[in-house]
Design goal:
Layout (H helix, E strand, L loop, with lengths): L2 E8 L5 E8 L3 E7 L4 E7 L3 E6 L12 E6 L5 E5 L5 H11 L9 E8 L5 H9 L13 E6 L3 E8 L4 H6 L2 H6 L12 E3 L29 E3 L2
Antiparallel strand pairs: 1-2, 1-7, 2-3, 3-4, 5-6, 5-12, 6-7, 8-10, 8-11, 9-10
Length: 225
Amino acid sequence: MRVSYAITWQGPEAVSRSGRLELNPRGLGFEGSNGNGPAIEEVAYDELSAVRIARTPGDRLAGRPTLVLERRAGGPIRIASVAQPGIISELAEHLAALHLGEEQSLSRVVVVLPLKDGVHERAAAVLEQGPPFDPEQAGLERHQVFLTQREAIFVFEADAADAVDRLVKDTTLWGAATAWKELVSGPPRLAEEAFFWVRPHPNEYISSAPSPGPGDSDGGDLYSP
């Protein structure tokens, strides 16, 4: 189940809309209306440069607690809750837990390799020998393999956006994995990510203290790179 909030939001064009905000795997999904028809907007996490709670009356929406999303381009988006002011802090913690795109910069590919019947033990023995490449030299951060009676599931993760793609498309590397040729029952498949969730944890990017300055007593920066 994805996290969603009832909100009012305002973009750089200063038009306020009411609806809902969803935390999707790759970004924020806004859906609502301002009386002139439906409005749908998506903002990727890696488009955000900072998240802060509005400190001045002029920065808030209708005087309510307001979260300001600073974007790398396109101007800020202001978000206020419809009925529960506390969700602004909760939403800020969710976004800070995602490190505003640092998690999303992770490149992840899952490859599913179908196996012939009765080869589970042989596949396990092959996996015990390790991969036919050096994961560190390949630029990976993590590499896991899960084994069932019918499939071997390879998970590749890297910080560089293209590191995993280069590895998966390296036909020379896969050609070197000769031990698998007698075990597979068909071509490998790429698994598509259908759901993403992360538990929000307070961390070094979150601060409840106001930013320094005269009159700054009711909010402050929650994250800034």
